[in-house]
Specification:
This protein has about 450 residues and is an alpha+beta fold. The protein folds into 2 domains: about 5-100, Beta Barrel (OB fold (Dihydrolipoamide Acetyltransferase, E2P)), CATH 2.40.50.140; about 140-435, Bira Bifunctional Protein, Domain 2 (BirA Bifunctional Protein, domain 2, 2-Layer Sandwich), CATH 3.30.930.10. The chain has 13 helices and 16 strands. The strands form 3 sheets. Strands 6-10-11-16-15-14-13-12 form an 8-stranded mixed sheet, sandwiched between helices. Strands 1-2-3-5-4 form a 5-stranded mixed barrel. Helix 5 packs antiparallel against helix 7. The longest helix is centred in the middle third of the chain and has 31 residues, at about 245-275. It is elongated. The two termini are about 35 Å apart. The model has no long low-confidence stretch (mean pLDDT about 95). Bound molecules: aspartyl-adenosine-5'-monophosphate (AMO).
Length: about 450
């Protein structure tokens, strides 16, 4: 058996015989000729069959359908009349690996022609029902290449700075963040919970003396939200590091990390992202603009007449988040905005607090959507215990409070939502940006 060649490679192997394998991306059959476009994860190539000289292939061609999987052995030919790369394969053999039934979804809108009416694209929910078919498009495959690059760049960035990668448990005996929005699961004869964040374990790693850690893993939130940016299970990119002097250290690390990542993503995929998604990858300038929440509300009111009740001003509303994008673009010509000065009682109990009653932490907003929460943590046992009690958290967090009884360095960190990052980079909704979306009404496929 011949070895398989990726199509991207085959395109360069003029006059050589190759074995290529993939999905039938397009199939045009006419009286004397048949034209197939074969697609694998790397590229597409045209297979041209002169039916007169290949009577032995007619039977196979008669069975072929779009999206079937085939193996083709043939000779690679340069041919200027071929639109796709000016290259075609003259087949020696075509073997059908798997026949595709008529597709149950329409992945893309087909515009009307003189002879045929337009065909509408299936809704995202219909497409998720058959997500594996939907994921075969060029756009979706590019999305995963981009996401892989994104996560890999961030991982490399941290590895170069001495961070260790940890893998913390997702089945836990107590709720990890606020106690609300947590999924309870049956764990033999008792209850367990799905981790709402690796928060407690990131901090345990600090108490373990690991100093600098990160984790990329699933995060569960039992939120009945139906927005374009909420899901019940997402991938978190979390990090934590010790001996910080303030949460500004955490912000600096994050802006450097994101800038480095966007630089690399732009270099590798910027053109393709623009072509397939119509969005420009913008490498941000450093430092990212920072605003105090109180000042931001004043600015939004002054400039856009946006007002909220005094009682809501300790936290960021969704509208303020969206409007802040307009503001940061107008004032700084920037897509990112750090917001600080959140009211402590609106934030997690483990944030360190200043003497003005503010959390020593921040949110990072990109293109009007929150992508990160970060903070310096309270590492002093007595204060932390009191803050937990104020939030009504007692026995549940006892195991966590213990991490701080036997020596723990000052530390801070952040949690970044990978799905939101992908979604914002490519201007999609979260349902479009995930491998398979999970929401209150969605547990399959
Ligand atoms: P937070 O709850 O803000 O912070 O979550 C961190 C980031 O995770 C993403 N995110 C979500 N993405 C999709 N769907 C959701 N329902 C959802 N909820 C959150 C966002 C968000 O900014 N432990 C802290 C982090 C820390 O302080 O280190 C935490 O979990 O991008």
């Amino acid at each position: 058996m011949m070895k398989r060649t990726y199509i991207a490679e085959a395109l360069k192997l003029t006059d050589q015989q190759v074995l290529v394998q993939g999905f039938v991306d397009n199939f045009r059959d006419s009286k004397n000729m048949a034209f197939l476009v074969l697609k694998d994860i790397t590229e597409k190539i045209q297979i041209t069959v002169d039916k007169g000289s290949h009577p032995e292939l007619l039977d196979t061609l008669g069975q072929l359908t779009n999206d079937s999987v085939i193996s083709v052995i043939g000779i690679v030919k340069q041919n200027d009349y071929v639109k796709l790369h000016g290259v075609e394969i003259e087949p020696v053999s075509i073997h059908i690996e798997s026949i595709a039934a008529p597709l149950p979804i329409q992945r893309k809108e087909v515009p009307a022609t003189k002879k045929k009416a337009a065909v509408e694209r299936s809704s995202i929910d219909q497409r998720i029902d058959y997500r594996w078919i939907d994921l075969r498009t060029d756009e979706n495959q590019l999305m995963f290449k981009v996401q892989t690059e994104m996560v890999n760049c961030m991982r490399q960035f941290l590895l170069h700075r001495g961070f260790l990668e940890i893998h913390s448990p997702k089945l836990i005996g107590a709720a990890s963040e606020s106690g609300a929005d947590v999924f309870k699961v049956q764990y033999f004869d008792r209850d367990a919970y799905l981790a709402q964040s690796p928060q407690f374990y990131k901090q345990m790693a600090m108490a373990s003396g690991l100093e600098r850690i990160f984790e990329v893993g699933p995060v569960f939130r039992a939120e009945k939200s139906f927005t374009n940016r909420h899901t019940t299970e997402f991938t978190g990119f979390d990090l934590e590091f010790s001996y910080i002097q303030s949460f500004a250290d955490v912000m600096h690390l994050e802006e450097d990390l994101l800038t480095d990542m966007l630089e690399k993503v732009k270099l590798k995929y910027g053109d393709q992202i623009e072509e397939k998604f119509g969005v420009q990858v913008v490498v941000p300038s450093l430092p990212f603009p920072t605003v105090d929440l109180h000042d931001l509300y004043q600015e939004l009111e002054r400039r856009y007449h946006y007002t909220v009740d005094e009682s809501e001003k300790g936290d960021m509303t969704t509208e303020a988040e969206q409007l802040s994008y307009r503001w940061v673009q107008e004032v700084y010509g920037h897509e990112f905005l750090f917001v600080t000065g959140f009211q402590a009682d609106k934030r997690a109990f483990y944030h360190m607090r200043d003497d003005k009653g503010h959390s020593m932490g921040y949110d990072l907003i990109w293109r009007g959507v929150e992508i990160t929460t970060g903070a310096q943590r309270e590492h002093r046992y007595d204060i932390l215990k009191r803050q937990a009690e104020e939030k009504g958290l007692g026995e549940d967090v006892k195991f966590y409070l213990d991490f701080f009884q036997y020596g723990c360095p000052p530390h801070g960190g952040f949690g970044l939502g990978i799905d939101r990052l992908t979604m914002l980079l490519l201007d999609l909704t979260i349902k479009d940006a995930m491998f398979i979306f999970r929401g209150p009404n969605r547990l399959t496929p």
